[in-house]
Amino acid sequence: MRWSQAYIPTLRDDPADAEAVSHRLLVRGGFVRRLMAGSYSMLPLGFRVRAKVMDIIRAEMNGIGGQEFLLPELHPLEIWQRTGRDVTMGDILFTVEDQHGTQLVLGPTHEEIFTTVATELTSYRQLPQLWYHIQTKFRDEPRARSGLLRVKEFTMKDSYSFDIDEAGLDIQFTNHRGAYTRIFTRLGLETVPVEASSGAMGGTESVEFMAPSPAGEDDVVHCPNCGYAANTEKAMSAVAEVVDEPGPAAPEEFPTPGVRTIQDLAEFEGGASPERQVKTLVYMVGEEPVLVLLRGDHELVEQKLMDGIGATDVRPAREDEIRELLGADPGSLGAIGVAGIRIVADPVLRGRSNLVTGANSDERHVRGVDIERDIQVDDWLDLRLVRAGEPCPRCGEALDVFQAIEVGHIFKLGTVHAEALGASVLDAEGEGVTLVMGSYGIGVERNMAAAVEANHDERGIVWPVSIAPYEIVVTVVKMNDETTVAAAERIYAELVAGGVDVLIDDRDARPGVKFNDAELIGIPYRITVGPRGVSTGVVEVTERRSGVSSEVPLEEVTTHIKDLVVSQRKGI
Question: pTM, whole model, 2 decimals?
Fold first, then answer.
């Protein structure tokens, strides 16, 4: 491609709404343009990168036996109602109504739709099956931000496995884990597989692939000693034991004027330090209230609560609901003597005594609380947020916490979707068996952005060869020098003939402008062809990542470049 003919609208300044590095550089480099919040137009450079990302994904999926489909983006709402995900995913569904009054969904994912295809499977002899497609998804994202990292419309590779039993699912899950690791390596990403919540997807197990990045919206708990890793929505840690001093034989109520928070009570005369307090939160699960108990210095992870009680329709209770339920405002709440309301507590509180909690009377608390004696806990659930420095649950070493971008997620779905939609086969004995499913997703544009977050410097993007829009840029220093132009054109033609993705910068512009643009858009290698070099039979080859330049003989440069490029196309 000739730069003089290409549409590469680079910008001098950062876009005003840019937050993440990838957002800033993909817009400045002319890869994408914002149409509205959460929706981006893919320009030619961006389209080329996106196509290469998809090619890598496709190659690795085919390598583990995947068969490519293309299923509709427009779904009947009725199918989503059959699985119940019209409710559990209702907050992100885009729904429309056609002229006949039929309710439709713009697909946020395709578990239901692939399962409708799988209902045509009839025998265990047809299994296992691994199906995938690369298709547009729509999600009513309430916090569209950071360019391509959080959007309302995006492309996803989603694959689905169908097996006769859990053993088959285990094999498919392991195969995907390996394929995903290879995909991310080829995309220039270092990732950490972590234990994760399955959320609205459901199922028994899931693993997220996390790329460490300051732009990430997820926090990952990681043990540098044994390798334990989990999203904070799933992470656990050991907690140092707190020795409780003997307390009174029964709870004692006492006044606490002005006390509204855990810290207020810690500073109040006669109060208690945070680790000796019981924090009481009120949540609504649908229309039913639940009391949530934590140690005073611990934070609730709402996803853990939802996973623990098996519900997605969960929200903090309003102050009027809390007062009607317990007779006091937040800051004075407790669970002593509460009956008829489900109480869940974090296991850190199990066996604790001589604690302090709210009295369910404004500005009054209770001391000497023995959890087992004074509070009827219905369920002990891991609820707390794990913090850096806490002991690893496996080896006891101090845990790290880092920000990361989720670049892929794999789920063991089990039979939940197949049961709802009637997908079953006959086994070897002729008995009907519900299909066991797995679901596996990778966001294409999100991985483009993650690759930029991991591969950039102060001058712009540093694409890996594997997904660069062009592998080489031939920069002509002087367009009015016939000998220089002729040499550059010959190199360009030989590289094109050799199957290299090459861009020739034949613009009538200053060399500095050309160099800056090439660095901004991140072309891995630059061949600089100038009068001085051509007169001595050499050109300059510059590697974008290191900035190192070397002189290469004119007659050898195409072979030299092809060797460089071919060795790196697969992330070697």
Answer: 0.90
